[in-house]
Amino acid sequence: MAKKRRIVIALGGNALGNTLPEQMAAVKITAKAIVDLIEEGCEVVVAHGNGPQVGMVNNAMIALTHEDAQQPNTPLSVCVAMSQAYIGYDLQNALREELLNRGITDMPVATMITQVRVDENDPAFQSPSKPIGKFVSAEQAKMMEENFQYIMKEDSGRGYRRVVASPKPAEIIEIGTIRTMVESGDLVIACGGGGIPVIRQGNHLKGASAVIDKDFASCLLAKELDADYLIILTAVEKVALNFGKPDEKWLESVSVKEAGQYIREGHFAPGSMLPKVQAAVDFAASKEGRTALITLLEKSRDAIRGTTGTTFHL
Ligand code: ADP
Ligand code: MG
Fewest CB atoms within 10 Å of the CB: 6, 15, 139, 250? Predict the structure, then answer.
C-alpha cells in the first residue's frame, strides 16, 4: 500500500464560530470535512486558532476578579490553555462521532495540551499588536491598564481593546508525544490557539503573556511531523492578488519565489491573509515535495484532489 499523505490542517475562525452554540454547530461541519480527507486516504493532524475563544475566557476571568477581590487576574497563557481544552473537547467529540457514523471504529481521537516555546527576546514583545477580547470604553481601558498592567489601544473608532504580543513559535514542547500518537494512527488535535506560549527558564517553562499566530504554529508542527501538506482552512476559497479590487485575480498555483514577490507588493492584509501566505511559503520552501494549500473548509477534499484552492510549492 502506498504511504499515506500526511496533512496538518490549520482551522480558522469560521471552522469554530464565535459563541458556544456556534462552535457546537460549526465543529460538526468541520468534522465532516476532516473525515472526508481521512476517507481520501490521508493521515490528518488538526491545529486550530482561538481568537474569539481566548477573548471570551479572558473576559470571564476578568469578571471573576470583580466578583471576588481574593481572585488575582488570570495569566493569558492560562486563558490559552483553557481555550485549547474547550475547543479540543468540542472538536474531538465531533470527530469521534463523525468517524463512528462512517464506520471508522479504530481511530482514537485526542487533544494534546500543547506548549510552544517562544524567545523572550522576540521583538514582538516590544510591540504588542494582536487585539483580543471585547471593546471597552476609555474609562474601563484606563482601569484595566492600572489594575492589570494591560496595554489598551483604540481600535478604529470602535472603542478600546487589549493588545498582546504575538511572538513566533520556536519549539513545540510536546512534539515527541504528538509524533508518537500520530505514528500509532491516532487523530490528534494539537497546537490549539497557536499553542500555550512559554519561555524557558532552566528546567522551568514560564507562561508568557502572548498569543502565538496559529498559522505559524501549524507550519512548525507540519515541518516537525515531516508532513506532505499544510492546509490552512479559512473564509476564502483562494488567495487573491488585488483582493477586493476590480482587477482582483484568484491564484491557483504559486511558487515560493512568486509568493515572495506578491508579499513585497503588499497583496496580503497583515493580521489576516499575510501570516497564512508567510506560513504557506515557509512550509513549501522547507523541503522538496512539501505543498501548502489555502482554501475553504468545505473545499478541502477538492483542494487535495487538485481542483481548487491556492497551492504553494518550491
Ligand atoms: P482565519 O480566522 O481563518 O485566520 P482571517 O479573517 O484572519 O481568517 O483571514 C482570512 C481573510 O483574509 C479572508 O476572509 C479575506 O477577507 C482576507 N484577505 C485579505 N487579503 C486577502 C487576499 N489577498 N486574498 C484573499 N483573502 C484575503
Ligand atoms: Mg486569522
Answer: 139
Q: How confident is the model at residue 132 (pLDDT cuts 50, 70, 90)?
A: confident
* Higher per-residue confidence, 148 vs 247: 247
Cell of 296: 475553504
CA-CA distance, 306 to 40, in Å (whole number)? 13
Active site residues: 13-14, 130, 214, 276
Q: Please check whether residue 90 is in contact with residue 23, taking contact to mean a CB–CB distance below 8 angstroms.
A: yes
Per-residue pLDDT reduced to its tens digit, 242-293: 999 999 999 999 999 999 999 999 999 887 899 999 999 999 999 999 999 9
Note the Cα 101 to chain centre separation in Å: 27
CA of residue 2 to ligand 2 center, whole Å: 35
Assess contact for 237 and 298: CB atoms under 8 A.
no
What per-residue confidence (pLDDT) applies to 2? 67
The protein residue whose alpha carbon is closest to atom 1 in ligand 1 is: 12
Beta strands in 202-309 (DSSP E): 204-207, 229-234, 240-241, 249-250, 253-255, 291-296
SS3 81: helix
Provide the β-strand partners of residue 198.
Answer: 117, 207
